[in-house]
Amino acid sequence: MKYFLRSAAVQLALCLTLTLVSSPAAKAAADEQTFLKDIHESMVADNWQECDAVAELFLRKHKAHALANAVKGYALVQQGQDKKALPYFDTAVKGGCAGLPSTIAESHANNIWSLRGYALMRSGKFPEGIKDLEKSLEMKPRTCLDILNQRIDCLNIGAAYKRMNDMQKSVSYMNAGELMKKQYHHVFYPVLKSPADAKYNAGKILPELKSDPGATIPACKYAAHQIYLKNWPEALKYLDKTIAVEPYLMPARLLRAEALKRLKRSADAKKDIDAILQTRDKAGLNVWAVDQKELNGVLRL
Q: Nearest 5°: phi and psi at 26?
C-alpha cells in the first residue's frame, strides 16, 4: 500500500511538472528565449532580412510584445523601409520598450527615441523626429556606444534643421556632434599633464564606478588613466569589464592589447589586434575604427 501511494505521488508530481512546462506562460517564455537568441545572432551578423523574418514570426504569436516590435521596426529601417517601421516603433513605445539592449543588439544597441526619431526624419517628418531625438539626448550616456549614438542624434537633428532652412540651429547641433566626437576620443585618451594629474582624475572616477558598475564609460576612463600611470594589471581589469559589455569597442581593445603586451602576454594581445584588423574595413563599423597612429604605436611594442 505504501508503494502504491508513493508511486501515485510520483505520477502526480510528474503530471504537475508536465502541466507547468506546457502551460501558456512557460511556452511564451520559451518562445521569447528562442526569439532573443535568434535575433542576437542575426543582428551580430548584420543579417537584416533574417532579423526581420524572425521578428515577424514571433509577432504572429505575440503581437503586442514591445521589444519584438522595436526589433521589427529597426530591421525595416535597416532595409530602407522607414515609413513601414513607424507603427512598430509606436507599439514599442506604448508597450514601454526602452530600446534595443546590448545583450541582443551589441553594436546596434540604441534607445527607442533615437530609433523612432531617425525613422521619422527619413520619412520626412522632421519636427516629430527632432522631438524624439531631443528626448534621446536628454538621457545620460552609460556606455561608449551611447556617446556615439547621441553624436549621430546631434548630426541628424542638424541635418533636419538644415532641410528646414534653420541654419543657426543646424550649425549648433553639428558643432555639438563634433564635441561628442572629442568626448568619445577622450574616454580612451584623456588629456593629462602629469602622473599626479592622472591619479587625481582617476580618484574622481571611482565613485561613479561604484555607483554604476555596469557603466562602461567610467570603467574605460579609469583604465585609460591606469594606462597612463603604467599600472597595467589595474588597467587590464577594467578593460576586461568594458569589453565584456561592449565587445565591438575597438579603441578599448587597442588599449587592452597595449596592457597585455606590457605584461608580456603577446599571444593574448594578438587576439585583440586581429579583431581590430578584421573589423577595420567592415561596412558599418567605421565608427569603431582606431586611429592608425595609435594602432602603429601598439604594433611596435
A: -65, -40
Question: In the chain, where are the structural domains located?
Answer: 30-95, 112-183, 189-282+293-299
Helices 167-188 and 250-262: angle between axes, nearest 10 degrees: 20
The three-point CA angle 67-147-163 to 5° equals 85
Give residue-wise pLDDT tens across range 165-191: 999 999 999 999 999 999 999 999 999
pTM for the model stands at: 0.86
User: Rounded to an integer, what distance in angstroms lies between the CA atom of residue 292 and that of residue 282?
Assistant: 16
The reported pLDDT for the residue numbered 288 is 60
Q: Which CATH number fits domain 30-95: 1.10.150, 1.25.40, 3.40.50, 3.30.420?
A: 1.25.40
- Identical fold at 30-95 and 189-282+293-299? yes
| Mean pLDDT (whole number) for 272-297 | 75
Please write the tens of the pLDDT for every residue from 126-168.
999 999 999 999 999 999 999 999 999 999 999 999 999 999 9
- CA triplet 87, 90, 93: central angle to 5 degrees? 155
Q: What are the C-alpha distances in Å from 215 to residues 145, 212, 238, 267, 298?
A: 11, 6, 11, 28, 26
Instruction: Record the cell numbers describing residue 112, joined without a space.
Output: 527607442
The mean pLDDT of 60-89, rounded to a whole number, is 96
CATH class of 189-282+293-299: mainly alpha
